């Protein structure tokens, strides 16, 4: 973990910003797969990790703002636990490492919060994404589950988002260490992909690398010849010679910061001319976006710029037509790019998404669009130095969506539907990298991973 001082500083800033009340951070519990002692791999809550650092189940952190007290609640192991799980560090030892002097058994949390409630103090907590933590707060605060959901603290959400959005140099280092694993995952896949293999064989190889490095995946691996399905988690296809396969995968650093990289690879090792044409448009869109990312610009504008490059490329192929700026303003490109250009990255792969996307990606001045495509952009706000974001343009040919739009003749002034039909079976292309917004522009994080047609084909050949 980071030095104790890091956590002390983060909590001090949070305390100042929230200003009053009790701030409670329920940590995550051990989550059963099919019975209690058969749990999923443990993953601590990211905000708990950020402010309290301790990477173990069954903990809660509490800050009493006016009382200037910080506490960690948790139970030390019993001899029974030691028999089954081995010796564990005490809660007090763990708390000391993150600069918290006061610890109490978990059962005391209800009492401390109850006293606060009776005194009319405000209890701040973040939106909860795990049902067991909703139940926990329901018990602790004597309110119903809907009240728990409605009662998350906007002040706390804003304060946490403000702090977690800007990454320190040490956090960027963590992300780059996650990206070392991502690099290996991408290179290994490029070497191992071959016609006749199941997608899952490659998934096994690259996720094995993650386990071998003592890490865990940052999200379920997307590895598919049906890349037109944006979050396709099926790995059951046999890869064929003419296919292209999307590898959108990522691992966590030791401190649980995420890396998130996508490459699109021809299964035969050579892109066809048609694949090359579409692929190069996506490369161009990503390049244009890299060139545009800098402090002070709205990420929404970077997204729209990338959309214009995509639409311009599709116009060159005869798929789209008309004025490109008008086409993008009307949302015509969204037939082929249905999602956003990227998202924040940090302790979560979609950083802080559980706190509410609009708190993270939008402001009072920059509000989310309702337009198909643009409405899926998770991040629209002005970029600041220290933001780490993904830049992931793509082109996706979804037969069902094409059929629907074609039947409605939707935006036919910008789309040549008879040409689109020739791409029905194309699949999808996505290229994704993670960038740090610097003081003047941006830096692509991690070791370079082949991106151009030539570089990807060359990496495939490196057996
Ligand atoms: Mn991503």
Give an overview of the whole structure.
The chain is of the alpha+beta class. The chain contains 17 helices and 13 strands. The protein has helices spanning 4-18, 46-52, 79-85, 91-97, 108-118, 131-141, 145-150, 154-165, 169-192, 199-212, 273-292, 299-316, 324-330, 357-361, 399-408, 417-420, 453-461, and strands at residues 22-26, 60-64, 69-73, 102-104, 123-124, 222-224, 244-249, 261-266, 388-391, 394-396, 428-430, 433-437, 442-444. The chain has a five-stranded mixed beta sheet, with helices on both faces. Strands 6-7-8 form a three-stranded antiparallel beta sheet. Helix 12 crosses helix 13 (324-330). The radius of gyration is 24 Å and the shape is globular. Bound molecules: manganese (II) ion.
């Amino acid at each position: 973990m980071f030095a104790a001082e890091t956590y002390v500083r983060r909590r001090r800033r949070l305390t100042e910003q929230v200003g009053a009340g009790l701030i409670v951070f329920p940590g995550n519990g051990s989550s059963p797969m099919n019975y209690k002692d058969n749990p999923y791999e443990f993953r601590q809550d990211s905000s708990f990790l950020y402010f309290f650092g301790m990477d173990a189940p069954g903990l809660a952190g509490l800050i009493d703002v006016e009382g200037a007290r910080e506490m960690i609640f948790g139970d030390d192991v019993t001899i029974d636990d030691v028999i089954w799980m081995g010796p564990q560090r005490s809660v007090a030892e763990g708390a000391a490492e993150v600069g918290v002097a006061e610890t109490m058994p978990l059962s005391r949390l209800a009492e401390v919060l109850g006293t606060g409630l009776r005194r009319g103090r405000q209890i701040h907590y973040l939106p909860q994404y795990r049902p067991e933590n909703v139940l926990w707060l329901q018990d602790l605060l004597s309110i119903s589950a809907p009240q728990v959901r409605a009662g998350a603290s906007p002040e706390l959400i804003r304060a946490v988002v403000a702090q977690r959005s800007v990454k320190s140099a040490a956090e960027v280092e963590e992300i780059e260490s996650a990206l070392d694993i991502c690099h290996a995952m991408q290179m290994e896949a490029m070497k191992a992909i071959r016609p006749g293999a199941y997608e899952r064989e490659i998934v096994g190889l690259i996720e094995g690398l993650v386990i071998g490095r003592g890490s865990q995946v940052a999200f379920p691996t997307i590895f598919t010849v049906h890349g037109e399905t944006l979050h396709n988690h099926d790995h059951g296809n046999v890869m064929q010679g003419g296919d292209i396969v999307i590898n959108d995968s990522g691992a966590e650093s030791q401190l649980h910061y995420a890396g998130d990289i996508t490459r699109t690879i021809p299964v035969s090792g050579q892109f066809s001319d048609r694949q090359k044409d579409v692929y190069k448009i996506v490369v161009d869109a990503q390049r244009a976006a890299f060139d545009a990312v800098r402090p002070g610009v709205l990420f929404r504008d970077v997204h729209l710029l990338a959309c214009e490059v995509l639409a311009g490329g599709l116009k060159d192929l005869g798929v789209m037509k008309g004025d490109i700026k008008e086409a993008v303003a009307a949302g015509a490109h969204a037939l082929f790019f249905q999602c956003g250009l990227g998202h924040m990255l940090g302790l979560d792969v979609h950083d802080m998404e559980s706190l509410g996307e609009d708190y993270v990606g939008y402001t009072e001045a920059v509000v989310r669009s309702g337009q198909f495509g643009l409405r899926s952009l998770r991040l629209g706000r002005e970029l600041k130095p220290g933001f780490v974001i993904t830049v992931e343009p793509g082109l996706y040919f979804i037969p069902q969506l094409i059929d629907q739009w074609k039947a409605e003749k939707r935006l036919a002034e910008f789309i040549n539907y008879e040409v689109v039909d020739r791409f029905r079976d194309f699949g999808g292309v996505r290229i994704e990298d993670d960038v740090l917004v610097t003081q003047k522009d941006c830096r692509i994080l991690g070791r370079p991973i082949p991106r151009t047609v030539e570089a990807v084909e060359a990496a495939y050949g490196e057996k």
